[in-house]
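Inputs:
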Amino acid sequence: MVGSVFNTRCTGSSIGMSPDTNRRANRRTFLTLAGSGGMVGLAGCVSFGGGEGSGDDGSGDGSSDDGSGDGSSGDDGSGDGSSDDGSSDGGGGPDTIALGQPASLSGQWDFLQPGVSQATDAAVAHINEAGGPLDAELEVVRRDTAVDPQEARTVTTQLIENDGVAGIVGLYSSEINPLWDFLQDFEVPIVTPWPGSTFLDTRGGDKGTPEDLSDDEWIWRTVVGDTVHTSGSAVYALENDLDTLGVINGTTEGERSYVEGFLEVYENNGGTVAERVEVELGNSSYQSALSRLFDADFDAFLVSLPQESAITALNDWSDGGYGRQPILSDPLAQQAIIDQVGSDIHGAWAGSPGQSGPSYDTFEEAYSGQDGDAEINAWTPPAWDALMVTALAIERAGEASPEAIQRNLGPVSRSGGTVVHTFAEGKEALANGEEITYEGAATPVNFTQHGNVFGSVTISTAGENGFESTSEVPAEDIREYVAEGEY
Amino acid sequence: MGLLQEAIFGVVTGSYIAIAAIGFTLIYGIVNMINFAYGEYLTLGAFVGFFAANALPGPLPVAVVAAMLGGGVISIALARGFFTPINHTGPVPMLLTSIGLGIAVRNAIRLFGGRSARYIDTETATFRFDAVPEVPIGSVDLLGGFFLTSEHLTVVGSAVAVFLVVHLLLTRTDVGIAMRAMGDDESLARVRGIDTQLIRDSVWVLAGVLAGLAGVLMAIQTNVSSTTGYSHILQILSAAILGGAGSPYGAIIGAYVIGLALAISTAFLPSSMTGLSSAVAFAILIAVLLVKPSGIAGTEVREA
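Outputs:
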């Protein structure tokens, strides 16, 4: 090889000049191919989340064959989410009703999506087996946002404008908060199992006036907010004499929101923060941050990072032998944490939204009968609830327009009617002319004026057999720390 | 903990960056292009290492060697397919091509490599040196007890080995001397009989080998995912520019400056600003370039 570096071929000159290998024909051919390939590649990046529909069999085939699953094959496609005009005027009801699900099929939160997808598919199958809302077939069009606000903006527009969905059953805090005004302008109800952000504590819902849409904000969440379960975690920490805390958290909205919620209750009730370190995500090492954190004296340390960064940080913590009691944010109560960090993480605990609402057993039975073996996480039962309460709202409304759903989400969930635990029970009660109150799998789903739900907090502790529920902080214990009207 | 411990963390971080930055800066200096797809080379090397660790018998170093070989093959294949045909178009078209290639490769990895992070199982030993005396100056302890892990030693050892091999290659072999000649003046090198295409290919292979090594070391420390390399490309780029674009020795210096800046700023910034440690590293980069535009090593900046 060394000998061939210097070209000794005579080219008519006394100097052995090597050939210039750049050829114009190759360039043109290459540029044509590269340009075409680049456009295809970039097109693939821009619309990375091809539609993945969920039909009544829950197998993801509910979409049309181009992946768009438009659910609006009726006469006008005007976005009412049904295949005809959306009315139910005596036998003229829609054939199909479509809901849209922006999903984290990729990105740093993708590990949470399988459980939510499986719960959604189970709910769709259950609803359709019961006859479907307005006797139509319910479809869910699922598209990937990677929890990226710009991608979420595109996907939401596609779902509403192109797929003609009547409602949205997804979106994270990281997507809703920056897109708040954009989402309100659509005036399409978003019933989501994901967001914990305190930003939504006083935003969303029908403000207690279901018939008056003028004061409405079109976001509802079926998962308890960070304010609730971080309060529960803080209460549990104080009850266990963990009076001084170190904190390491990421710089994104979700991680900060979790910590702020936790510390508000913790510090107002006697807890002290000895040191707090914010870190960037995706670093190859967090040793410097840990070194700084553990120079302080505290009883326990709170970790609020996405899973991949948390595993790196906790591995560094284990390697450094820093010790002390870890408290994890709720998304970190995952088997992968124990698998990668090892036995040092045993004893770490996380407070998550309770998973034991009044109809949890019904949900669990349907969930386990569904294809797939995704682990149930804190967002899985709320995903079931989001579908149930939206379908019941359509059934009560008698039509599948966004406005009708928005008007009926409160009435089918708030107390006062016949208690129902499934869509089938609700459909039957509504057919009998009764008012209903849906009680869900994660919480009782008693929507507040701001579209929030309230529930207990489950404490899960890492051990040999994974994260196991070891304690429960009742909703009424937490309620005293969360003022009425402020959530 | 003392400044010594922070310096160790900085040296480890700098070593990751340095290995990759050498490859990046060799491409810049000899092929005359800024390769924004280089992060994806690290990612692909990490994936090769991950699959090799699971598929091949033998200890982890076998997977590391496989990642290096895989990185070299991938690098030359991508260069032959996308960069060699447009060598004559100049640095800007090649830069834009590399951006497009990086996006396409990253998303292809997401599509075909799965969406979950993967982990290479390793056992880490920790060595503690608690008897080191403290040397406080104000509130800062210059020495004090510290610890090292087997991963730290592996990364730093790999980096030192790479520095030696690259130095010997550039100073003691015809290929290396030809590389340096091309870096100075490609036309003159060609007139003098150097097979410039062969040298370019050699650079691509070497850069790929280094990317594979850096990628698998990062994978061992963190995980393997579609963004393993992409999340470090700015640090790699900064190290190369800080040291003096095109100079492997400058890239090494630049990498350690950035590594130390990241570690020490995390340790000493006010609590509310610890998430800005990268900003401090880039502030140093800007300050150095304002004072000395050619970078720390003083290498002449090419037209790219």
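Remarks. The longest helix of chain A spans residues 24-46. The two ends of chain A are 73 Å apart (CA to CA).
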